[in-house]
Design brief:
Elements (H helix, E strand, L loop, with lengths): L21 E5 L4 H12 L4 E5 L2 H13 L4 E5 L5 H14 L3 E6 L15 H29 L2 E6 L12 H21 L4 E8 L5 H6 L2 H9 L9 H12 L10 E4 L7
Helix pairs in contact: 1-2, 1-8, 3-4, 4-5
């Protein structure tokens, strides 16, 4: 198997300090979020898996429980303030105070020419990718600040780091997440809360496999300096590091998980 098609999942890296720390992963029903939730649970962190697809959430949480971890599935639309508040209450009641917040909900990066962009689509994308992150962070941040500890990891995209084939609303929202991360990291650093961002490029998930053929994915892999498409475990591994005390002197940064395509 060539490097470009290699998809073997390596063993989950272990960070002993993550054990017992309550984690929330939004956008956790599948793909990158699901992989991250499973990786956190493998590190003995109780995990709240959050998303809008109740059946998919149940499957992820169930797989964690069957593997010996602890997880709850919480259905919530993170663009709705009332549902995010209910989410925070449910997690506090069932798991306790949150110390790790992976803000991964979003999407909607499909190409749309700006001359054809509608105000309705623009608002929907900004709501799902930027406003949802703000609402989620606001719901959990006060307790983190009060307790003097916590790690927040937001998810931008390569599209928010340089021009790409996605739509302008998505690029703007993902760029906004980078700015939000830096601003918040500076604002709360004195409280002992760290805020960092990850910016993946093309990752082989259900959506990418649906949109592309195997031959197209092979060609895409060759466009990266590291000659492969990203895998969900690449994002999970970076998130574990940023959540752990191994990154205790890192805040306000954006890590490009992009196979070398983005070097800044």
């Amino acid at each position: 198997m060539s490097a470009s098609t290699e998809t073997r999942t390596p063993d989950v890296v272990r960070y002993p300090d993550l054990a017992g720390k309550v984690a929330v992963v939004t956008g956790g029903s599948r793909g990158l979020g699901a992989a991250t939730a499973r990786a956190l649970a493998a590190n003995e962190a109780p995990v709240a898996v959050v998303g809008r697809d109740a059946a998919a959430l149940s499957e992820v949480a169930g797989s964690i429980e069957r593997s010996g971890g602890r997880a709850i599935a919480v259905r919530a639309d993170c663009t709705r303030e009332s549902e995010v508040r209910q989410l925070a209450d449910a997690v506090a009641e069932q798991l306790g105070a949150v110390e790790i917040l992976a803000v991964f909900a979003g999407g909607n990066g499909m190409p749309v020419a700006t001359v054809e962009e509608t105000a309705e689509h623009w608002r929907a994308v900004v709501e799902s990718d930027l406003t949802s992150a703000f609402l989620t962070i606001r719901a959990f941040l006060p307790t983190m600040v009060e307790r003097g500890r916590g790690s927040i990891i937001t998810m931008s995209s390569a599209a928010g780091r340089q021009p790409a084939g996605s739509n302008a609303a998505y690029a703007a929202a993902k760029s906004g997440l980078v700015g939000l991360t830096r601003h918040l990291a500076n604002e709360v650093a004195g409280s002992g809360v760290r805020v960092n961002c990850i910016a993946p490029s093309s990752v082989e998930n259900e959506r990418l496999r649906t949109w592309t053929t195997a031959e197209q994915r092979e060609q895409l892999a060759e466009s990266f300096p590291l000659r492969r498409i990203g895998q969900p475990h690449d994002i999970a591994a970076a998130t574990l590091f940023l959540a752990s005390e191994q990154s205790s002197w890192i805040t306000g940064v954006t890590i490009d998980i992009a196979g070398g395509k983005i070097m800044v």
